[in-house]
Amino acid sequence: MPSAVWSPELKANTVGTVRYCVIGTGFAGTCALWHLVRELTVPGRLSPLSRSAITIATVERGRVNGPGYPYAKDNAQLGHRCNNEASTMGIHGNDFVDWLAESKPWLVADHPELILETHPGIEPTDWKPEDGEFYPRALFGLYLEHRFQDAVKIARDHGIEVRQYTGHEAFDGRTTEDGFSVLLRDLGTGREFSLDGLDRVLLSTGHWQSAENDALAEHAGYVSAPYPPGRLRSVVAGRVRSRRTPGARPRIYVQGMGPSGIDAIMTLCDEGEFTYTADGHVASYRPAPSGGGEEPPHIVVGSRSGFFPPVRGPLTGHELSHLTPDALAGIRREHRGQLRIEPILDLLDKDLRRATDGALGWHDVENPRFSSAREKLENDLRDSRHGNPVYTLVLKARRMCFYRELEPGDKVVYDRLFDTHFIRTAVPMPTANAEKLIALMDAGVLSTVKHGYAEPPVSVHEDGGFVIAYETADGRRSSVRADCVVRAKTQDFSLERHPSALVRNLLRRGEIVHHEESGYVTGGLALDPHGTYRVTRRVGSLSGPSPHLSSYGAPVRFWQNEHNYARAFVKAAEQVAADWADAATKIPQRTTVPDDSGLIIT
Questions:
Q1: Which of 43, 311, 77 is nearest to 154 (CA)?
Q2: pLDDT 10s digits, 25-56
Q3: CB of 300 within 8 A of CB of 448?
Q4: Model pTM?
Q5: Residue 30 in contact with residue 66, Cβ under 8 Å?
Q6: What's the rounded Cα separation, in Å, for the pair 533 and 549?
Q7: In sequence order, what are the residues at sequence separation of 6 or more whose Cβ sits closer than 8 angstroms to the Cβ of residue 367?
Q8: Under DSSP, is residue 363 helix (H, G, I), strand (E, B) or coil?
Q9: Residue-level pLDDT at 414
């Protein structure tokens, strides 16, 4: 239990007022704020008097609201791309592309490098935003920052008070007689205080990566996450200097071949230079020259499968004809209302074979027919020009959200064996990243390994270096030495190991609970099973939906298994905003005056 006193910044709630709080103002929090403000300012929904009785508090550890951790200036360098097309990333409709067009004059003037990263060689003034482009994450961060402040301005223009607590950490929370209370700490001064009487609170804390129970966490040269990139470069450079021996080429191992692993590679190669063809494709990579003439570090990247995500092209017109809602209903009838993973994969296999004239099936998703990651990248680049039926059908199967209805034992199997294949196939990479990876391989800077599932891939050698175990092309076990290890694999879903004291304290208090089925703790927090985004809380021996707390996105275990990125966030934000706005419609129509703290009293 924190030793801080619950000294209120927002005092106990007053009859006739409504208070909202958004904890974490990255994409999820910004999207929620924007849709909440839109709901509250719809003409005729609320009277001016009731709007003046609304307070919205936002809490963010970073210095700026909007970008959150993934898109913040310090965490997203120029070569880090979004892994979804621009048209799918707006907080409503095609808003990101619309904002790019509206903001073009000042982007060209102040941030031409963000334009040239995706359109090398053009004159920035000739740039036209493209729906299908994968823009730099830093550019998307600017969009979120502007849309957050747009929402704040609209709210204030309608008489709604907005309090922004940037550089603050929420580290405890509890239900009280007057609503919900959240304890904050100013990260600059250490001052602690509470926001009391909150009617609705959103937990939008984003992804997490725990170092707890990580056997490598205390070893020099181990980097637990590829962000911020400045720290990654600093740790690796210091480690390489300390271990360099004459004639020896340093080696860096990146664990994980998904989007974060690709970001780590781009960070480590940032000082070199990519060259481009006349039509804007990557032609080659030139490592940065070293003062002593040493070779550039050798980067090895690996995963269980040994393959990168696919290069996304246009979706094909193929539809699922075997794996259909009716087929899922049939599986439920045969298995007491639950789904089983084996018949689902059998049906998906039939759809894949139908779409490829029998050439490819589910086995080829689990074990792609390529001798190397490079061969698959080259094949994906060719397929991306016309669309990939395998990618299309696996993505559509994932969007059927079958995971939540799997029998608990099958959830264990899915999490251990199959989730990696769905994620690797459904989560794409930009064409430019695939071209860069091939250029790095051609330059002798990058190579890949496959670990398989047999044993932990990384161990520590007696000399303090690392040993990376992998499978050779003929299935034998081998190993390679590395000076540094960069962890870039999936997040840890254990709430007990969450780095946020808020999450751990809410769990201890019963304000949130694990999602658990028949003894299997899937990880992440549980939501109201009736389909809302209210979290499940525990009071004594009873559990039920929280009257105050909502959440969606990374803290929810099912999210990664079932949801596309931005579209699912928008849908959840719309539903949360509608739920929250209902509380404001119940404000009594009465005269209100502010007290000396700026809050509304009756």
A1: 43
A2: 999 999 999 999 999 999 988 888 888 899 99
A3: yes
A4: 0.89
A5: yes
A6: 9
A7: none
A8: helix
A9: 92
At residue 458, what are phi and psi to the nearest 5 degrees?
A: -125, 135
- Alpha-carbon Rg for the chain, nearest whole angstrom, is 25
Q: Considering only CA atoms, which of 522, 517, 559, 529 is closest in space to residue 408?
A: 517
- DSSP secondary-structure letter at 6? -
Contacts of 464 (CB under 8 A, 6+ apart): 219, 220, 221, 243
Residues 538, 545: Cα–Cα separation, whole Å: 9
DSSP reduced 3-state for 512? coil
pLDDT in tens, 236-285: 988 888 877 766 789 999 999 998 999 999 999 999 999 999 888 999 99
Which residue blocks in 244-372 are alpha helix, DSSP H? 259-268, 325-334, 341-355, 362-366
Q: How far is CA 395 from CA 173, 403, 562, in A?
A: 38, 14, 10
Output phi, psi for 477, to 5 deg: -90, 135
Residue 54 DSSP SS3: strand
In this prediction, residue 7 carries a pLDDT of: 62
588: preceding bond cis by omega (within 30 degrees): no
Q: Give the residue carrying structure tokens 């004159």.
A: 123
Contact 114, 103 (CB under 8 A): no
Which residues does residue 59 pair with via DSSP β-bridges, in sequence order? 23, 165
d(CA 419, CA 410): 12
d(CA 139, CA 38): 24
Q: Which residues of the chain have pLDDT under 50?
A: 1-4, 589-602
For tokens 């009716």, the residue is: 326
Contact between 437 and 265 under an 8 Å Cβ cutoff? The reply is yes
